[in-house]
Specification:
Elements (H helix, E strand, L loop, with lengths): L16 H20 L3 H5 L3 H6 L5 H4 L7 H22 L1 H22 L11 H14 L4 E4 L3 E4 H18 L7 H37 L18 H18 L6 H10 L10
Antiparallel strand pairs: 1-2
Helix pairs in contact: 1-5, 5-6, 5-7, 6-7, 6-9, 7-8, 7-9, 8-9, 10-11
Length: 278
């Protein structure tokens, strides 16, 4: 079923906690960089040669809060708002912030590995934002997004389009002023995290619950064979199951849900907002 997700008006007070925090942090650092000027971006932007040669390791974190122009800042803030709101609402603030930072840090490290001698500072939140784009496409693959505000495309097709665009642009060096490696790095880290790490974490939790339940029931099973843990759904399968349950509620009402379906919704319900202030 194709979903047409929509946002309400740009009301800062109604935004989710981490989206609001990221917007404030990016605006504050943009203003500070403008006031200080000088070598600010060379000190706090990502300069691979300095990270490798001089151990300026803070740059792999600070670079994602700096921007080169007002237009650059506004585009990135729009993307954080567009993709961040539904993701944070689904995951909760703590998990959303962790994912955002992992994508930004991963993009920085990939950029350093691929261009260790570069003296050109890389700035901007795009590495983390491209990770959000991948997460949004995996969570809501059929959702309709208006590309460049005019062209309606499905989220999964949008992610593929931008991935190919960044790959060919980096291969041909068509736009040397844009850090394509950081963009691709953010997408890669986001996909690997959701596709494999998330599944591994779920399997580990399921295995731990199984051990606890067996001990509570009286120890080892009578049979000499070790019980095999139940198969854990992939992230895409889990999100598809959530969509199916929501459709069922719309058609038949919440009373029609089975206990298993209620458990699925409980796992994915938004956490309390104050959880983001960790």
């Amino acid at each position: 079923m194709t979903r047409n997700l929509s946002h309400g008006p740009l009301d800062f007070a109604q935004m989710t906690p981490v989206v609001k925090l990221l917007i404030v942090a990016n605006v504050a650092l943009y203003v500070l960089a403008w006031l200080v000027a000088g070598q600010f971006n060379h000190i706090f932007g990502l300069v691979p040669a300095r990270v490798v040669g001089e151990r300026w390791v803070w740059q792999i974190f600070t670079y994602m809060f700096l921007h080169g122009s007002l237009l650059h800042l506004l585009f990135n803030l729009l993307a954080i708002w567009m993709f961040g709101l539904p993701i944070e609402s689904q995951w909760g603030s703590r998990e959303f912030l962790k994912f955002y930072l992992i994508c930004g840090l991963g993009a920085a490290l990939i950029n350093v590995v691929l261009a260790p001698g570069s003296q050109v500072p890389v700035i901007g939140a795009s590495g983390a934002i491209y990770g959000l784009l991948v997460a949004f496409a995996m969570m809501f693959p059929e959702a309709v997004v208006y590309l460049y505000a005019f062209f309606p495309v499905k989220a999964k097709h949008m992610a593929i389009f931008f991935g190919l665009l960044e790959f060919f642009a980096s291969a041909t060096n068509a736009t040397p002023g844009i850090a394509r490696f950081a963009h691709l790095g953010g997408m890669l880290v986001g996909y690997v995290y959701l596709r494999w790490w998330w599944v591994l974490k779920m399997r580990t939790k399921a295995l731990g619950r199984g051990i606890v339940q067996r001990r509570a029931a009286g120890g080892e099973r009578p049979s000499g064979r070790t019980a095999r843990p139940a198969r854990v759904r992939t992230y895409e399968e889990e999100m598809a199951e959530v969509d199916r349950i929501l459709d069922k509620i719309l058609e038949r009402g919440e009373a029609s849900l089975t206990p298993e379906e209620r458990d699925v919704l409980k796992r994915h319900q938004p956490r309390p907002k104050n959880e983001g202030h960790a």
